[in-house]
Amino acid sequence: MANTEKTVTVEQIGSPLRRPKEQQATLIGLGLNKMHRRSTLKDTPEVRGMIRKLPHLVRIVDEA
């Protein structure tokens, strides 16, 4: 049976330097910590909420 789980790939486009600790922690929660690094995650409401908190630091690259 094929894997039907949806995923979302995000890329870090902004620096966490001089950002609040909460935003830095959210980036780490997304698996990002350096510029232009990409992370593929399960497409869940929790992950989508984390992405919405950081629209100036991350962008969605791919939704599968």
Automatic annotation (TrEMBL):
Pfam families with a match to the protein in the record: Ribosomal_L30
Keywords of the record: Ribonucleoprotein, Ribosomal protein
Entry-linked InterPro entries: Ribo_uL30_ferredoxin-like_sf, Ribosomal_uL30_bac-type, Ribosomal_uL30_ferredoxin-like
A Gene Ontology molecular function term of the record: structural constituent of ribosome
Domain Large ribosomal subunit protein uL30-like ferredoxin-like fold: 9-58
Coiled-coil boundaries: none
Family the entry assigns: Belongs to the universal ribosomal protein uL30 family.
GO CC terms: cytosolic large ribosomal subunit
Subunit structure, interactors included: Part of the 50S ribosomal subunit.
Protein name: Large ribosomal subunit protein uL30
Entry's Gene Ontology BP terms: translation
